[in-house]
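This section describes the prediction task in plain terms. A model, or a person checking by hand, is given the sequence of a single protein chain and must write out its three-dimensional structure as a string of tokens. No templates, partner chains or ligands are provided. The sample shown here is typical of the held-out split.
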Amino acid sequence: MGIYFIKSGHLKIELNGKQGRPLILQFVGKGTVLGHRTNSNHLYHSFSATAVSDVQYCYVPQHLFTGIIEKSATLKQLIINQILNELELTQNKTIKLAHKSVREKVADALLVIADVYEYETTQQSFRISFCRQDIADFVGTTKEQVSTILKDFEKEHIIKCVARKFSYMNIPALREIAGHQAG
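The expected answer:
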């Protein structure tokens, strides 16, 4: 019944799939806006947001937000652009789920996590709040397959991780595995 502006922290956005198994749509962090797709015709969200770390946010009730949008063409256009970006992300995720190998999907998921956590090689390490099951739910596979691929990536010196702590990620190698274009 309102809009949430994420100021800090990380969340997972998910749907409940078959037999109650979740499908994680996105991992998101600072700067994300949630709740902007509700209006008088669409009062409820088909997804849920779960904090995976401490989150600070700003909440604006829907009626106030609607009034603000009616007065600001710029804000209205920004919201439309965000909805279009989300549609493109959903289309891309559908293609990835259908056409990529599990190895490519896991590499892609690690790139998404690195982006959300603003990973930089110079950091030396960072701890993620997503378990192997979350990664599996994000790419549409099993926790066991994710574990096997993460072990393979470690053997290939593409990542170094213990539990949820990454001390190294070879971003260019992950991009290559995931099939991302250079640039």
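For orientation: Strands lie at 2-8, 11-16, 22-28, 33-34, 48-51, 56-61, 126-127, 159-162, 165-169.
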